[in-house]
């Protein structure tokens, strides 16, 4: 049973009465703490309905709904229309970064992460092209060869992220590599969704990644940045299409 944080039931109404609804991030944090640390919800089980959660946390149902959408975007819960919401992942490695960066705020969080990654990845592409040697070139080619559009979306996304990690390694900058790794972890679920929506998207991504590797291997920083920027812009468009926005 969810333990209420407030005794005033009016605070859980959607009508705007009582204490104002806390910021979305605070609601999401409370929900995450309940789902993963209370011991009341197990992996694969259905979580309490929105009304019960709203009453427990002393917020409106709309705030709970938005928090659940954010967790769904991260692949931690699955919302099944007409059935309820289920806890589908016990993976906690994302949560510290999610909380720190405020990415439990829904679609805007996705946009912020995509913008941040575009900046980081473009710099990585430039440095990788400047510093790529024979050994790095061979690793990048092997990573590219592992990417096949006929693969399952999850496998394809994982192999794409492996290629980006090789690019970060080739850039020879530990700080940038760690930033890229963190952003990749947060974007992994969203990449899976975009590739599930269209096999054509996987073919397009493979072609874009090939252009990046060729530019880096040719030690052409300008072309590498251009190719990376184009790839991430196309990736963002595929994600938006998959999300129906």
What features would you describe in this structure?
- With 245 residues, the protein is mainly α.
- It is 67% helix and 3% strand.
- It has a two-stranded antiparallel sheet.
- Helix 5 crosses helix 7 (153-171), helix 8 (174-197) packs across helix 10 and helix 9 runs antiparallel to helix 10 (221-242).
- It starts with 23 loop residues before the first helix and ends with a helix.
- Mean pLDDT is 81; it is low at 6-22.
The gist of it:
67% of the residues lie in helices and 3% in strands. The chain has helices at 24-37, 50-57, 61-73, 95-101, 107-131, 134-145, 153-171, 174-197, 199-217, 221-242; strands at 77-80, 84-87.
Q: Helices and strands in order, then pairings?
A:
Elements: H1 24-37, H2 50-57, H3 61-73, E1 77-80, E2 84-87, H4 95-101, H5 107-131, H6 134-145, H7 153-171, H8 174-197, H9 199-217, H10 221-242
Antiparallel strand pairs: 1-2
Helix pairs in contact: 1-3, 2-3, 5-7, 5-8, 5-9, 5-10, 6-7, 6-9, 7-8, 7-9, 8-9, 8-10, 9-10
